[in-house]
Every structure is written in structure tokens, then in C-alpha cells.
Amino acid sequence: MIDEYLSDDGPDIRINVCRVMAFNYLIGNYDAHGKNFSIIHDKQLRFAPFYDLLSTQVYPALTSRFAMAIGDTYQLERIKIHSLEKFAKTMNFRFSFLNEILEETLTAVGYQLTPLLGEHEKQYGKSIVYDELYEKIQKNMRSMKKIQESRRISG
Question: Nearest CA to 140 among 66, 49, 52, 45?
């Protein structure tokens, strides 16, 4: 669909979809569904900015199943190398290129996590959610790194 209807920007849009997939994985946004991806129709069709990017993982009463699969996998703890390989293929990218995007996203989130949570705490006051969010994101970052490492070891 991206290449068919948004062909001028198709590759860049696919890169950004990969970035947001990685970001949603890292923050534990299980509610990232198709209605969060929109197309703006003005003089030409273009992809809308991403929105509704928040962690649902920190709220135990909410589902722990991604609304959209990564590869064919919906459960965060079941996402393994095969899931990312399939996702890369679906996005029409080599796995090595997807891996670069994952590394970039891991680095950006890792760099911003502590300062951003500190800024939020300073502005809105102390909250247990900040500590839980920090722990969940750190755990998800470690999981993603393990998945990447498994690819380096096996192939």
C-alpha cells in the first residue's frame, strides 16, 4: 500500500514505519493499531505524523498483546529473530537494514529515556509510573538486544 499510493515517499515512509514499530516495541505500546496510521489527502497523498504513542505495558489491566503483529508475532516475549526477519521482508528491506533502524532507535531511546522521565517528574511530580516505565523500557531494550545478538551468533 505504501509504495502503491505514496510511491514518491515510499522508501522513507517504510523506514519510518520500521522506526515506529521499534519504538512501540521498546515502550511496550500494545495498542498500536491500523487506525493510528493515517494518510493526509491534500494536493497529494502523504503519510500523517505518528500519534497515540504511549506505553500500555505499564498498565497490567490492559492487554499484553500487540494490536498489530511484528512478523506474525503478537506477544512481546515471543518476538524473536524470525519475527523481525519476516517483518523486514514484509517491509521490503534486507534484515541488515532493519537491524540498522533498530540500532538507531535503541540508541535514541536509550539516550532520551532518563532525561525525559526526569523532566516529566520535575514538571508533574513523582509518580510510580515513571519508575515502572523506566524498568519496562530497559527490559524491552535488553530483550531487543538479545534478539539482535542471536542473529549475530547464528548467522
Answer: 66
